[in-house]
Amino acid sequence: CSVFRISPDGSRQTILHKFNVSDGAFPRGSLIQATNNALYGMTSSGGSTGSGTIFRINTDGSNFRVLHNFNGADGHVPQGSLLQASNGVLYGMTLAGGSGDNGVLFKINMDGSGFKVLRYFTAMYERLNYGSLMQGADGFLYGAANGGNSAEPGSIFKIKMDGTSYTTLHKFSVYKDGAPVGALV
To answer: Are 112 and 63 in contact (CB under 8 A)?
Structure first.
């Protein structure tokens, strides 16, 4: 797996970084270009514990750096894309790990400092976060969870950027309105 750049007409492709398992494997979601012009992304496995990584790289391929190695307790199998919120901080979710192995919602600064789990997902309808977070005009972060079973097939939630005021906005019913997969718009 690699990070690459390609010209708009497809005539020139450049490999910016090849992952070697120790720095991550199987990138997930899309790269984001943050306000500092660096690219940020996540891998769903690899890294120092095999639980995935958060990385940054410059657009010319220089300064590749692993910012965080997930260890299972703080998340496992990151999914979706990172979000740079209005406060400049990066936010994301994992599919598994944390208490109960239901995934977490986390934040990290662009320089790799300040990693913190903001929410350990615990209920069945909160788990399996395949998509990405989005920020609403009200400043809250919004996301969707798949749930993974027909009894509790998922939910839509919101949370403040500091991790407080978590609210479940909607619990899905598989027989009534299905189950979410992917990101909100």
So the answer is: no
